[in-house]
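Bench log, entry 3. Co-assembly request; chain sequences pasted below exactly as received.
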Amino acid sequence: MNSTPENIGPYDPAQLGIFHALVESILDEMGEALRHGAFSQNIKERRDYSCALFNSDGDLVCGAAHIPVHLGSMDTACRAAIDAILMREGDAVLLNDPYSGGTHLPDLTVILPACFSDPNSPDFYLGVRAHHSDVGGIAPGSLPLSHSLEEEGLVIPPTILARDGEVREDVIDRLANASRQPAERSGDLRAQLAAGAVGLKRLSELAQGRGLDRILIESRLFIEHSANVLTAFLSSMNPATGKGVCIMDDIPGEPGASIVCRTELKLDGAPVLEIDLRESSDQHSGCLNAVPAIVRSAIIYSLRLFLPPDTPVTSGLLRPVRIHLRRGSVLDPEPGAAVAGGNVETSQAIVEALLLSFGGLGWDIPAASQGTMNNILLGSVGMSPGGFSFYETIGGGAGATSERDGASGIQTHMTNTRNTPIEALERAFPLWVTEYSLRDASGGEGEKHRDDELKNESAGTYRGGDGIIREFEILSPTRLTILSNHRTKGPPGIDRGKPVYNDSISGKPGRNLLIRKGEVIELPARVMLDLEPGDRIRIETPGGGGYK
Amino acid sequence: MSPLNQGNLRVGIDTGGTFTDIVMVEGGRMLTAKVPSCPDSPALAVLDGLDKTGERAGLVCHGTTVGTNAILARHGGPACMVVTKGFRDVLEIGRGERIDLYSKSPSRPKPIFPWDLIFEIDARLDASGNVLSTPTIDQVEQIAEIIEESGSEAIGVGLLHSAAWPGPEQELSGLMSALTTLPTYPSSELAAYPREYERWNLAAVAAYLSPVLGSYLEELADKCPATLALMASSGGLISSDQALDNPALCVLSGPAGGALAALSLGRERILALDMGGTSTDVTLLAGHLPRTREAEIDGLPLPLPTIDIHTIGAGGGSIVKFDAGGMLALGPESAGAMPGPACYRNGGPATLSDIALLSGRLPPSHFLGGEMSIDADFSMKALDEIRPPSMTFDELLDGVNELAKVHLAGALRRISVGRGIDPSNPKSPFTLVPFGGAGALYGVECARVIGLKEVLHPRSAGVFSAIGLLQAPISSESERAILKRVRDSLESIASSRQELELELGGILGSWSEKMPVFTATLECRYRGQTHTLEIPLRANAPDSITEDFENAYKSRYTYLHHNAEIEVVTIRVRGELIPPKIDFPDIPDAERDMADAQSGNVRMRVEREWIDAPVYLRDNLPIESELDGPALVVEDFATLFLPPDTSMHLDRKGHAVVELK
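Structure output for the full assembly:
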């Protein structure tokens, strides 16, 4: 049999495909173990988690098809854990510090070393990231309108969660005590550990069966492979420069942020894609700051859209890319700056700006999608135990493309979580959902709704998808947080390759409404507010841009 | 007279995409036949097949794809749906996630009903069952009128919280039914599943299939003198009336027959591998049919207890390709029946079948009983077009063969090791049972990859599902919500069990005077979790329930939550009338001679080498004959590939039992 590493040439495509299938099945199984073992709606119903495999340097070898904003940024978490702690067999490291491997505080990442040759020297690492529904801070759900990191909840730098196979209960207790739902935190974190244990077991079987040396080489080739796919794509395009901008909404007393992206494709020698984000706004006074890991994941995601369907997502997708960030800007903030909205909102804005800049390069881009995650957080006021925290993101319109209408009411770009079933939500929380529907005629170019003749008369003209209306009635005193975008200007449509912000081609902007005693009050894009029983909150999400 | 009398002859009829298979056992002989399926009028093929039984059938056990095809092609209806006001779009939005993570135009599965066939009504409960709004009779009448005008022939009804509080939904359904004289499908009667999208989708599917299934069953009943029993997705046979009460039961019944047939092979622990043209179904059978509530069709959820089958997009027609970076991939795209693999000579792409053909695993002369002519030159040409210059032809064959093995073994691992069961454990070894056209081409090698010692390739693997239909129990099942901590649940469990047995006894009483066999299972979870585990109800005692749950949980998830309480969510009772055991006749031994069985040699690619290996005709092999791999054992609709270091023996029933050394 041909199982020695010498026989694996760098171009043995068959063996690489086999390696991919084997690793992906391990990661899928980890995800299933996490989902079935978890306690919070956010993990078990919304599936807000990701699992990934890293090499001994912390490079992403393979991620299961979970959440894009996680996958592209988890390698940073792995490297931070490696730098901070000398991991050995039986260890697990926990972190959420955005300035040390994290992205925002609710995303808790567990990194587990896989030591097959030497118990003190990991050959691989496995990562399990899950969004926890509350880690403390000034508002339930831990995504507040904060002005500093410490307002957002418990900050965990890389910390030993298990050593020599023993779980450190004090670490779990510290997290649980910081949260508004201690039991749920502890159950979810244990489910993350269990998913890691499943993964380690399978990976060790793989190392034994296929040979450790062999999978070490294959993981390196696999990363190179995805770099090659991207390089092949870039080489097929013309050298060009492009610019894309996404301006995030201002709110009273707090300006938004603008993301400015200049992109240049150079083809002298090996292709290089320069992505310069230095003209983006200065560090944000509120919570829209995004750490560089988020920028990296937005770039990986956006590039991946242009590659063939089977292309693996690895750290290799950044190899032909040069990223330029400015320290002290909204995309590379100084430690301590608030970041709650960076992962969930600024990430979408980065994708919008990136794709528009790719359009400038002459690539066939889709019109802008809703460009926000419409984060809504509802929870009990105060920290008394037994309180609740509900978090969800709401889908919206997808942008039209040169070939198709955009989909309506769908999760776009950097997230792909599911909604919470209304029945599950109303059983678990003091809330009623009073409406859940598609928002008629909110997609760009949308005069008519759901008509069979959706397309305009002229050929090659497609309509953006419609947004969603989700309305809640509040049944007990509740603290609301909304983090959203595209409330003043709608997502741009595309006309002859250029972005257009007008009423007919761009998607309709979203609206956040408070209905109190019959009065309808329009709320800003980002808001934190205490609600009374009987109040209704109505979120109307943006439509996608049209395509001409 | 009850339809299950001993004297009544059972006939199994299984409708597939290409063929309709017929099986019966009479007078010590097993009769099998295949007639071409008739996609436009499937009843014709069934009646045609029934003709071949000489009108002696007493009970026709039928697996049908009428429901499945109506969903896949969206040609069901006319029908409509009534839901709680404000939530018409729930069926379109679904759970909101997109199918492809990375796509410029993300999409969701196409909903069953367009928005203008979904009507809203003021009927709303809260989670505790309090009525928040209730429709006026005027409103109900108005909607009934619109529905009649729409030409609908069935109505699905979905109200929020009806799984926990079914009263108002069933009342509304009754009213609608009385006003329109149409059949109604209240979601809560189909499944007590507490998530609105999944449960309403089930009601939508039921209403959508009702007219199609109704006319199909009517046509069969008119022309077929025998009693009809239909295979349901749960692995039991149901009457036409039961099927019309919940047409969604017939949607995922396809793989049930094969799983049942595998169960009857006399092995305690089985991994079933059903490999067809476009996909492969794998099932783990340890004495009973494993079941799930996360079944889907065409991306739409069907939360009925369904045989837990894991499907992967790798089959004989899976397309072989290289991506832009030069990495080899197999499927999930398939060449389908048309144009089919390159070797069919219809301009199809290079597929796994072409690789098997060129590797010498698929003798062209025996492909589909020799009825279909295939041409290896076309395979060769198609492969040459995709082969990268750095790779030799042999390397390509080796690579694809290995990739196929990895995909299949991965699926087998997922349903065994992935659920806490080690199939290679010598104390509780599993047997691999490959069937379907391509199952035995790769089955023995897969068994080796996952550490099994035995493969059983059944006799008549080509009509295996129909054989399973003969052995299916007539069954009916029902459930009640419990939602109590283990120690508080005992009374509810006992009383619900009694009620359910009474209810099921009534339904099954129309089939036979015999007492049904009842089995009760509990769905349990840690309080606060959503996902449940199903455990058999051994004894109604807190200790045994806790112990069984913890054992099941630990084996599946490797750990326990010591501080969390265990909760009983539902009790489900299944009543079964077990059919008289069919004694499959031994194969006739007369005039079988090893010399006749040998049919020359084939040059095959095995473990990165070309070797010559003998070909045997299975129908001529003498009983108890033994042979060693490498070899090919061929019959009309299936080929068994024996790699080196294996030996095979043909048992008296005609099954090929392969031992891996």
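The CA atoms of residues 365 and 453 of chain A lie 24 Å apart. Confidence is low (pLDDT under 50) at residues 1-10, 447-459 of chain A.
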